[in-house]
């Protein structure tokens, strides 16, 4: 995100007319962890909801003054945490409950690490910052299309190399309506940050950075003074690009009491934050590959060879089908395919909302065996098959990953 530029921009440019301060001077003027020599910054991108803002993007950024390295940890918005005074909830709810102060307290408790400064950005300031830099060039792996008339959001970005202005870049980093949901969006945000830093390295932009950094910082809300941020930029200006590492909180998706969460692996995250940066770019990618970041990663591949018709014959209870994606006629389409397997449909309807990232199953406790067989039939993880006291039927909630699941079901009927 462009927020990172405010603290990292100088890492790629020569700030002519400025002198790089010594590390001792930085430590004297800025808060930091005296044991590790690190400055931790909570960077928050918030939405523009009329009544209250939610933390749409949360980045825990660590600047290592002694080793001149930077790590950016993306926290998925659905991460399950304990919010002080509120109990267990999604981390992005902390901001509307108590602003940046409560979000910082929540993160400090969750990670067990101090936060020295914060930076906030919203949907109105983000495009301004990107446009100040002249836009960015990003390769879009596949077409991104989504329409939300109620939210006045229209996204249609073609596949291929795109030069994005601020408005298009905002849509790119907001898009999360594919099978990977918020995890896919985080990957695009990290792709954007890397592209933005490459843009800053361009000579035409780098010569303007002292002035641009001041304008960027003025577009943000932060308790980090402008002059101190410039001092950080000057200090990190000669840092090589491989000394910056982006990664995502390791973990897995889960449905608890009908609510979708990301269950973070704190021990693994802390190990990654404390590990030295080797200078190899692929390290962040390997860290992501080892985590459960997509429905495909959660599927037990051995189940692919199971006779699906035989599984379906053992599902003798009625099954309810709920549309949690929002695509028109989706519940009917799923129900029709399940009926072709001989499964009796209890009813079809819409879920409570249309923002379920992953297809899941809820079951009353007396139908545990059938729920596991239904999960095998759909090819979803056991972590997404959960007991619920609020349902009397075996219930499928269709998520944004429905295309691969529907294709799997239909292939078993050929």
Describe what you observe in this structure:
By secondary structure, the protein is an alpha/beta fold. It has two domains: 2-292, LCP protein (Aminopeptidase), CATH 3.40.630.190; 301-411, Alpha-Beta Plaits (2-Layer Sandwich), CATH 3.30.70. Helices cover 36% and strands 25% of the residues. The protein has helices at residues 5-8, 23-29, 94-111, 125-132, 166-174, 181-201, 203-206, 209-218, 226-235, 266-274, 282-289, 295-298, 308-313, 330-340, 368-378, 402-411, and strands at residues 38-46, 55-64, 69-75, 80-83, 87-90, 117-122, 136-140, 144-148, 153-157, 160-164, 221-222, 244-248, 251-256, 259-264, 319-323, 345-350, 360-363, 385-387, 394-398. The strands form six sheets. A six-stranded mixed sheet has the order 11-6-1-2-3-12. Helix 4 (125-132) crosses helix 5 and helix 5 (166-174) runs antiparallel to helix 6. The two termini are 45 Å apart. 42% of the residues are buried. Residues 318-402 form the LytR/CpsA/Psr regulator C-terminal domain. InterPro entries: LytR/CpsA/Psr_C (IPR027381), LytR/CpsA/Psr_CW_biosynth (IPR050922), LytR_CpsA_psr (IPR004474).
């Amino acid at each position: 995100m462009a927020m990172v530029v405010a603290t990292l921009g100088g890492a790629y440019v020569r700030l002519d007319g400025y002198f790089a301060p010594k590390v001792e001077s930085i430590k004297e003027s800025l808060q930091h962890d005296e044991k590790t020599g690190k400055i931790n910054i909570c960077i928050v991108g918030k939405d523009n909801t009329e009544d209250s803002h939610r933390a749409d993007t949360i980045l825990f950024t660590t600047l290592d003054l002694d080793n001149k390295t930077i790590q950016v940890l993306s926290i998925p918005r659905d991460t399950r945490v304990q919010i002080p005074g509120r109990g267990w909830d999604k981390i992005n709810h902390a901001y509307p409950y108590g602003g940046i102060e409560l979000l910082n307290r929540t993160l400090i408790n969750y990670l067990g690490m101090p936060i020295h400064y914060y930076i906030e950005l919203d949907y109105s300031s983000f495009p301004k910052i990107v446009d100040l830099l002249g836009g960015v060039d990003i390769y879009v792996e596949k077409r991104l299309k989504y329409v939300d008339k109620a939210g006045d959001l229209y996204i249609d970005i073609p596949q291929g190399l795109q030069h994005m202005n601020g408005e298009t870049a905002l849509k790119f980093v907001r898009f999360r309506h594919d099978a990977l949901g918020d995890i896919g969006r985080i990957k695009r945000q990290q792709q954007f940050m890397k592209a933005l830093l490459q843009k800053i390295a361009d000579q035409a932009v780098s010569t303007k950075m002292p002035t641009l950094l001041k304008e960027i910082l003025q577009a943000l809300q932060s308790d980090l003074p402008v002059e101190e941020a410039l001092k950080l930029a000057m200090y990190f200006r000669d840092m090589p690009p491989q000394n910056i590492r982006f990664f995502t909180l390791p973990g897995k998706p889960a449905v608890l009491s009908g609510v979708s969460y990301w269950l973070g692996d704190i021990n693994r995250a802390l190990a990654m934050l404390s590990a030295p940066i080797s200078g190899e770019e692929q390290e962040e990618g390997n860290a992501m590959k080892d985590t459960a970041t997509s429905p495909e990663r959660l599927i037990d591949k051995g189940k692919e060879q199971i006779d699906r018709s035989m599984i379906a014959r053992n599902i003798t209870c009625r099954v309810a089908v709920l549309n949690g994606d929002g695509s028109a006629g989706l519940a009917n389409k799923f129900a029709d395919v399940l009926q072709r397997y001989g499964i009796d449909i209890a009813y079809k309807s819409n879920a409570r909302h249309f923002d379920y990232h992953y297809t899941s199953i809820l079951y009353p406790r007396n139908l545990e065996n059938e729920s596991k067989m239904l999960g095998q039939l759909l090819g979803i993880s056991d972590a997404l098959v959960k007991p619920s006291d609020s349902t009397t039927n075996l219930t499928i909630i269709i998520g944004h990953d429905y295309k691969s699941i529907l294709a799997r079901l239909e292939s078993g009927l050929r």
